[in-house]
Design a protein that fits this description.
Rossmann fold
């Protein structure tokens, strides 16, 4: 059967940190805006099932975009003259300016992996800007991810990075979904996964600053799969314990990519959170 999805894709021209960017985004639904941020080295295709879920889109305007250098968002002009290293300030400013450009009224922000940590920085910077943040596979600081091995000329980074990320998923997650995660990771630009982990593992460190996150103004939820060995449930729980009023914890039978590796199971955790924010 031939059919056209209700998902619409467009490009937004935006200046971030003084650099002009052309950012691709997809959206579906209506209601409360829900910005979805992809993982390191990947793109917003990870959210295709959420974008096509009528139970969600009947109440939420789901918006997922590709960071510059990722997916369908090309690098900026003269990109070859610089090393790609994502910083907390540029990352946060990108999300803030994206929300402003679309005139979104206090959107919910959900991010996974590096974006699961970024949502904490977004609230710390301006809690009143967001209705709620949902961090998946994130914590105040995640050590050990920034490595140079993917740049080695004798390593096929498109296969090795994808296979490394495959190991982060639960054995019982559907094989077709795990292979889709692998496929998306196999298409990242050279050095982009490494550059993202610079933010995730080097630049962002909120340890000791968790009290600056005001959950009374913006509720914070952190969820991590029990099979995640990059950001473990213990990393996330330590962050939850340090943020007064934060909620969340362990997700069973799932790994580092809950939205894309097992969407039906993840939805069981997501829906009760979103139910509190339906207009």
């Amino acid at each position: 059967m031939a059919y056209i999805e209700a998902v619409i894709g467009r490009y937004l021209h935006l200046t971030v940190a003084g650099v002009q960017q052309r950012i691709f985004f997809e959206e579906a639904g209506q209601g409360v805006p829900l910005i979805c941020l992809h993982t390191a080295g990947a793109d917003s295709r990870q959210y295709r099932q959420l974008l096509n879920d009528p139970e969600i889109t009947k109440s939420f305007r789901v918006i997922a975009f590709d960071l510059p250098w990722h997916g369908r968002s090309l690098p900026p002009d003269r990109w070859w003259e610089q090393e790609y290293l994502l910083t907390a300030n540029v990352y946060a400013e990108t999300v803030e300016r994206f929300a402003d450009a679309l005139a979104l009224d206090r959107p919910i922000v959900m991010g996974c992996s590096m974006a699961g940590s970024l949502v904490l920085e977004l609230v710390r910077r301006n809690a009143e800007k967001w209705r709620c943040v949902i961090g998946l596979s994130g914590a105040s600081n995640v050590k050990g991810r920034f490595q140079d091995w993917s740049l080695a000329p004798d390593i096929n980074a498109q296969q090795s990075v994808a296979s490394w990320t495959y190991s982060l998923m639960a054995p019982m997650s559907p094989e077709a979904s795990k292979r889709e995660v692998w496929w998306i990771y196999s298409q990242g630009g050279p050095g982009i996964y490494r550059g993202d982990t610079y933010f995730y593992s080097q630049d962002l460190d909120l340890r000791g600053r968790e009290a600056e996150i005001d959950t009374a103004k913006c509720p914070v939820y952190l969820l991590t799969g029990e099979y995640d060995h990059a950001c473990t449930v213990f990393d996330t729980q330590a962050t939850l314990d340090a943020i007064p009023g934060a909620k969340g914890g362990r997700m069973v039978n799932i790994g580092h990519f809950p939205v894309s590796e097992n969407y039906p199971l993840f939805k069981e955790y997501l829906q009760p959170i979103l139910a509190d924010f339906v207009d």
